[in-house]
Every structure is written in structure tokens, then in C-alpha cells.
From TrEMBL:
Stored InterPro entries: DUF2086, Oxoglu/Fe-dep_dioxygenase_dom
Transmembrane segments: none
Lineage: Bacteria, Pseudomonadati, Pseudomonadota, Gammaproteobacteria, Lysobacterales
Any Pfam family: Oxygenase-NA
Keyword set, alphabetical order: Iron, Metal-binding, Oxidoreductase
Domain Fe2OG dioxygenase: 130-243
Name under which the protein is recorded: Prolyl 4-hydroxylase
Organism: Dyella acidisoli
Length: 244
């Protein structure tokens, strides 16, 4: 399936991402995560990171240490979302919904996701999950994001995306994106996703199916960020369900 991102910003040409060509489904099935290189250009990343200062864009700010979530802060966008974020959310959803539906079938879960994001949001909104979840995160030296799952109500779309907006090695050091998977009655496995500026990672929000010798089982997934050693790191998070 081809995902077309029309004009992610005024400067950017139309980009076409061939989701099949990038082995998105294959990686997600094997590892629970996949990396999409250079989804955004450096100038788009800088423009998005700069939005962090513009409080008119956001519905709320979370200081992570106050909640035991880690150290650093983030802000949830208000509706209407910035056009580039709205486009990313809409454009990536259909291909991810196909994977999510296949996973649910494999795991014996009877929830199915509609083919358009607009339709899925209607389902969230009818259930009272009305608040937008796309967010910008900002970390400084010493900050980190504890392993977590982004669940905001009954309706959870099982895949999400994060885009690194800062340049590792230059804007910051440390601060690796980390995923863990907890298999039933087994020790946990960790995976570090080596993101460059503008790269996206798509990953499982809460669980995913794994084929074992005795059939399919579910592994629990969590994600977080290791300690930022120096500098400042910004990320854009795109979650497909809305929040209560
Ligand atoms: O900063 C990161 O890389 C992780 C962000 C995150 O937890 C999210 O987007 O849900
Ligand atoms: Fe998260």
C-alpha cells in the first residue's frame, strides 16, 4: 500500500512512502517496531520543535516528574492539529489499520478498525474520547522517559508513531528510544531503535501477537527513552486514538 503525504509543510514536495517497500508489516510482525528513515526533512523537524513554545497550539502540559513518568515534559496539541501532523495521522492510519486488524484476528480479539482515520475517530468520540493525543516532548540533560504504554481509554489503536525532531550527536547525546517486550513466563527483551533526525519509529502500543511452538501468544510492549546525557531532545508523538 502506498501512503501519500501531500505537502507535509509548505516547503516540502509531495512524498510517497511505499509502506510495503519499507517492510513495515514484516518488521512489526517480527520485532513489534519498524523504522521509517527520513520521514521529515531537517527544516520540518526544526519548525515542529519550535512550536513547543507556542502555548496556543496545546491543550495541556505535563511535567513528567510530577507524575513519576520520568523527567522532562510534554504538551498535547489542541484541535485543529497543525496541518502536517493531521496529514501524517490520516495518511499512515489505513495501512496500520490493516496490520492491526490482522493482529487482532491472530490474537482472537474481535475488535476491527475501520479503513479511514476519520471513521475511527468517530468511534473514539462517541465513546467520550474527545481530546487529541498527538504531542511534542522536550527533554534536557538528565531527563528520561520511563517505560510506559499510551492508553487513554477503552479505545486503543494498537500502533503508534514517534518522530525524532532533534539531531543526535549535535543537539543531544544519549536519549535512545527503547522498547521492551515481556513474554508470558519469560524474561523481557529490550530493543533500541537508532533514530536519526526526521526518522520515525512505528511500534506496538500495548501488546502484539508472536508465533510460538504451541501457537500464538501475546507479548506486552512498553516504550521509553534512556537518559539524555547532554543537550536537548524533541520528539513528535502521533497516537491514533483520542483521549478521555
Ligand atoms: O521521546 C520519545 O522518543 C518517546 C515519546 C513517546 O513516549 C511517545 O511518543 O509516546
Ligand atoms: Fe509514549
Amino acid at each position: 500500500m502506498k501512503t501519500v503525504l501531500a505537502e507535509t509543510t509548505a516547503q516540502s514536495p509531495v512524498d510517497v512512502y511505499d509502506i510495503d517497500g519499507l517492510k513495515v508489516a514484516e518488521d512489526l510482525d517480527r520485532y513489534g517496531a519498524t523504522l521509517i528513515p527520513k520521514l521529515l526533512q531537517a527544516d520540518e523537524c526544526r519548525a515542529l520543535a519550535t512550536l513547543y513554545e507556542d502555548d496556543r497550539r496545546f491543550r495541556s502540559r505535563v511535567v513528567m516528574a510530577r507524575h513519576g513518568f520520568g523527567s522532562g515534559e510534554y504538551k498535547y496539541f489542541s484541535y485543529p492539529l497543525p496541518a502536517s501532523i493531521q496529514q501524517l495521522r490520516t495518511a499512515f492510519y489505513p495501512a496500520l489499520a490493516e496490520i492491526a486488524n490482522r493482529w487482532n484476528q491472530t490474537m482472537g480479539i474481535d475488535v476491527r478498525y475501520p479503513s479511514t482515520h476519520a471513521e475511527y475517530l468517530r468511534r473514539c468520540h462517541v465513546a467520550g474520547q474527545l481530546r487529541p493525543t498527538p504531542l511534542l516532548l522536550r527533554y534536557g540533560a538528565g531527563d528520561y522517559n520511563c517505560l510506559h504504554q499510551d492508553l487513554y481509554g477503552e479505545h486503543v489503536f494498537p500502533l503508534q508513531m514517534a518522530i525524532l525532531l532533534s539531531q543526535p550527536g549535535k543537539d543531544f547525546t544519549g536519549g535512545e528510544f527503547v522498547l521492551t517486550e515481556q513474554r508470558p513466563r519469560m524474561q523481557s527483551r529490550a530493543e533500541v531503535v537508532p533514530l536519526q533526525q526526521g526518522d520515525a519509529v512505528i511500534f506496538a502500543v500495548h501488546h502484539r501477537p508472536v508465533e510460538g511452538a504451541r501457537g500464538v501468544y501475546r507479548v506486552m510492549m512498553r516504550h521509553g527513552v534512556s537518559r539524555i546525557r547532554t543537550g536537548q531532545r524533541h520528539t513528535l508523538g502521533i497516537i491514533f486514538h483520542d483521549a478521555q
